[in-house]
Design goal:
The complex is a heterodimer of chains A (404) and B (146). Chain A is an alpha+beta fold. In chain A, 47% of the residues lie in helices and 15% in strands. Classes of the chains: A alpha+beta (404), B alpha/beta (146).
């Protein structure tokens, strides 16, 4: 049912329903978006969740404190560093301790490298959805070496298990620094190239500019986070507001744009990659020597909050302990929980051709668009391929106009 | 500098709502206990006048009743203000915040289905996460759930 207006049943016979989702074999987080359209225009959106509810909060309460990072790491495959990061910060808040400086720097480096790979993933998908498959292949071409780098540092391309309560599980070896530096140089050059290519292309601009605008007041009311908020002029970033680990010891800037459209969100993500590169470079240069963990004997009774700025926004973990070796309550809030709800405000009034892109603009762990089927009088009218085709045709139309 | 700012806010809060019980866990984490009848008014005050953002709410089944924590974030000072309130199990009702705060809409639905708290005045209190065939009045995060 619609978030703000529960009575928005399809009273108008002219309205049609375009379901997007819920299942897609390639992406996690199946969600069901029910677009209510009048002709080409989207008039309302209903969102259904819960197709993949795995009961993590409940499972976490049956595990010991040390086991939970491995569990919460599996919440999301793309930003698999964010959840254990926030969880460890929460438990450290319960204990009132801080990890040693070297561990803080290691965690910061991995957090930022992860941001780069996640933003690249989004950029590639956004390119695919507007019919620029070159952008998609091209961007992912340079995301690949980063995953190799993760494997080199931590032994896994994903689910790196670097976070541990009170420190880091693995050290970054000094002989790996040059390889990280080398990658940063490559990625800096390529990000500059993408930024220029994407912002200078009149067709891409026309597809992204002024589409899916999330107004600042809506962004505040829905409590959106991360690039979605920063693209709508809400300058929030946990790394600046409530700095943890090494973030207050390095020099970097928050990227904020006022427009609120898809282009603004794309610009935020592109420019943030440069800031991440800056942070990782400084961390490598100033990396302190010393141990990588603080030993914790016991988790005292109490409660703690951990927050980490994941690629999509603030990840929030609340942990309550009663002095035993398991959490009594573990609340997890991922940024997409807030961001996806704001789609209701962002998608209304735009065309079906733009809908896939607008829904993707918040960077949900992407879902379901290819499984869309439109039924009319019991007959299949459009499916996911058609929706993609609409989107691509629109780009093509704009392209022809420009090339005249 | 940021720390002093949050002290100012606490003084404001104490002036407006003298009955609250404030516990400062660390400079950026504050827990505020308040009666459930006053939560709505208090949340409205935090959101509209102190420009806080509702991050999320947590429901916990405790011995004394169901505890609800509304986690409000004051981003200008980087501080979390957590409103704590207790809802008795024999009358699990509390006023919904969803009418002025869309951010509360989903989480209230979630707490309703997982812990069985009724949010009075919620526009659409249907299950958010559990599957369609989940039995009614079965609350998986309650202690007595098997």
């Amino acid at each position: 049912m619609s978030e703000l207006n529960p009575k928005s049943e399809i009273r108008n016979p002219e309205y049609r329903v375009v379901p997007i989702g819920p299942y897609h074999p390639l992406q996690e987080e199946p969600e069901f978006f029910k677009l209510i359209v009048e002709g080409e225009k989207v008039v309302d959106l209903e969102i259904n969740l819960g197709y993949n509810h795995r009961g993590h909060e409940y499972i976490a309460q049956t595990m010991t404190f040390d086991q939970v990072p491995f569990l919460v790491e599996r919440i999301c495959g793309i930003c698999s560093d964010s959840h254990p990061y926030a969880y460890c910060l929460a438990v450290e808040d319960v204990c009132g301790i801080k990890p040693p400086p070297r561990a803080q720097y290691i965690r910061t480096i991995i957090g930022e490298l992860e941001r780069i790979h996640s933003h690249y993933l989004w950029l590639g998908l956004a390119g695919h959805f507007i019919g620029y498959n070159t952008v998609w292949m091209w961007v992912w071409r340079y995301r690949e070496p980063l995953l190799d780098l993760f494997e080199l540092i931590m032994g896994n391309r994903n689910h790196y298990a670097i976070n541990k309560i009170g420190g880091a599980r693995r050290d970054i070896l000094p002989e790996d620094y040059p390889k990280i530096e080398e990658y940063l140089n490559l990625i800096e050059e390529k990000t500059a190239m993408f930024t220029k290519a994407i912002l200078d292309d009149p067709v891409i601009r026309a597809r992204l500019e002024g589409v899916g605008i999330l107004k600042k007041e809506d962004a505040i009311a829905y409590g959106v986070l991360g690039p979605t908020a920063r693209g709508s002029g809400v300058a929030i970033d946990v790394r600046k507001d409530d700095p943890y680990d090494a973030y207050d010891q390095v020099d970097w800037n928050i990227v904020v744009f006022e427009e609120g459209d898809v282009l603004a969100k794309a610009k935020v993500r592109l420019l943030e990659c440069f800031e991440s590169i800056k942070i990782v470079r400084q961390c490598l240069r100033n990396m302190p020597e010393g141990p990588i963990e603080t030993r914790i004997e016991e988790i005292p009774p109490g409660e703690g909050i951990g927050r980490h700025e994941a690629p999509r926004g603030e990840v929030f973990h609340y942990v309550r302990s009663d002095g035993s070796n398991m959490p009594v309550r573990h609340k997890i809030r991922a940024p997409s929980y807030m961001n996806i709800a704001s789609n209701v405000a962002a998608v209304k009034g735009y065309s079906i051709a733009d809908a896939a892109l607008v829904l993707a603009a918040v960077d949900p762990c992407y879902c379901c668009t290819e499984r869309t089927i439109v039924y009319e009088n019991g007959k299949k009218k459009y499916d996911g391929r058609d929706l993609l085709k609409f989107s691509w045709e629109k780009t093509e139309k704009i392209r022809r106009r420009y090339n005249k | 500098m940021k720390k002093e700012y949050s002290e100012e806010i606490l003084n404001e809060i104490k002036k407006r709502f003298p009955e609250v019980e404030i516990k400062i866990h660390s400079p950026r984490r504050t827990y505020i206990k308040i009666n459930r009848e006053r939560v709505y008014e208090f949340a409205k005050y935090l959101f509209n006048e102190l420009n806080m953002r509702l991050s999320i709410a947590t429901g916990i089944d405790t011995r004394d009743g169901i505890e609800i924590l509304y986690h409000f974030s004051h981003d200008a000072s980087g501080t979390y203000y957590n409103i704590k309130t207790l809802v008795p199990k024999d009358d699990p009702k509390i006023k919904s915040l969803a009418d002025f705060l869309p951010a509360a809409n989903w989480i209230e639905r979630e707490i309703h289905e997982l812990l069985g708290v009724d949010f009075v005045g919620h526009p659409n209190l249907i299950p958010l996460l559990t599957s369609d065939d989940w039995p009614e009045r079965t609350y998986p995060l309650r202690r007595d759930y098997e």
